[in-house]
Specification:
With 323 residues, this protein is mainly α. It is 65% helix and 0% strand. It has a domain at 12-209.
């Protein structure tokens, strides 16, 4: 039986999501195709107000933020490389029991690891001044960081649409900034995808201004936050080739972008260089073998039944994929 408190919080959350969706729909309907002077400030203020409701929410919908803390603490407090060690190396730490991925080293880029380390050190000092060691201080700090970056993303969306689709600038920015998914995932859960998106949007904004060096830098920072942005790099190289009139200028553009990207890569991986001795460390991570909350998970569970019915049952020869 669910307690009355759980039922009340669940109903309150559903009501809040309904309010967000109703507000978003009304805003999109009323602003589509319109330009509103000073609209960016109003959009950001409303997003800030809505996010503050989630910032202090006494519940986590994902434990990823706790893993961020453990990786940052492992490097910042114990001097451990989070790519060549795993949380088992700090199982004496009071945060260890709060996370699920005990056997998984970090699968995030060095940009995020360094941000986690810096945030941990700042909050640890604040906790010392306040005389507390509450885990919620760290959680709220990660949420606040995600909120700040989310607002930065919204400002970049405004800038990009202002150059590409001025008539859709207001509606497009509202669609991102007030979207219940982004509000819950970023200010609510503190997920690091918001940093990836921020650097990617910054790269687009820099490219629209003709700043090739900054574009390459922001793309590199996005990749080194979360490696999925690697999929964007081939498209960017094709764009550089298509926009240059001669082969020489195309090669120079590629060389410039490559130099900036390589320099950023070497600089940010320097504190964790031991991980690069095994370039496939990400593939071998236990976290990389899971398909939670993905299209692959749907495919896996869809095929699991038919294959189990057709193929003979096998005998387990090793430990399960997730301990």
């Amino acid at each position: 039986m669910l307690s009355a408190a759980v039922v009340f919080v669940s109903l309150l959350f559903i009501l809040m999501i309904g309010l967000f969706v109703w507000t978003l729909w009304g805003a999109l309907r009323d602003t589509c195709g319109r330009t509103i002077p000073g609209g960016r400030r109003q959009i950001l203020l409303f997003a800030l107000g809505a996010s503050l409701c989630l910032l202090l929410l006494p519940r986590l919908f994902s434990k990823d933020v706790l893993s961020y803390l453990v990786y940052g603490r492992a490097f910042g407090a114990y001097g451990l490389n989070p790519y060549t060690t795993n949380p088992l190396n700090v199982q004496f730490d009071y945060n260890f029991r709060l996370i699920d991925w005990h056997y998984a080293g970090s699968v995030y880029g060095p940009v995020w690891t360094l941000l986690c380390t810096a945030l941990y050190k700042v909050v640890d000092r604040v906790n010392a001044l306040l005389g507390t060691s509450s885990i919620w201080t760290y959680i709220v700090a990660f949420r606040a960081l995600a909120l700040a970056v989310h607002l930065g993303c919204a400002a970049l969306v405004w800038d990009i649409l202002g150059r590409l689709r001025p008539r859709e600038q207001v509606a497009g920015t509202i669609f991102y900034a007030w979207n219940p998914l982004t509000l819950i995932e970023f200010p609510g859960n503190g997920h690091n995808d918001v940093a990836l998106i921020f650097f990617l949007l910054a790269a687009i904004a820099a490219h629209l201004r003709g700043r090739g060096g900054l574009t390459a830098l922001f793309l590199a920072l996005s990749v080194l936050t979360k490696f999925i942005t690697l999929l964007v790099i081939p498209a960017y190289l094709v764009l550089l080739w298509w926009q240059r009139p001669t082969g020489r200028r195309r090669l120079l553009a590629w060389a410039k972008a490559g130099a900036v990207g390589l320099g950023t890569f070497l600089l940010l991986w320097a504190p964790f260089y031991e991980a690069l001795r095994d370039p496939l460390f990400l593939v071998r991570s236990s976290a990389a073998s899971q398909y939670d909350n993905s299209l692959l998970e749907l495919l896996y569970w869809g095929l699991r039944g038919p294959f189990a019915a057709v193929l003979p049952a096998g005998r387990a020869t090793g430990p399960p994929a997730c301990w």
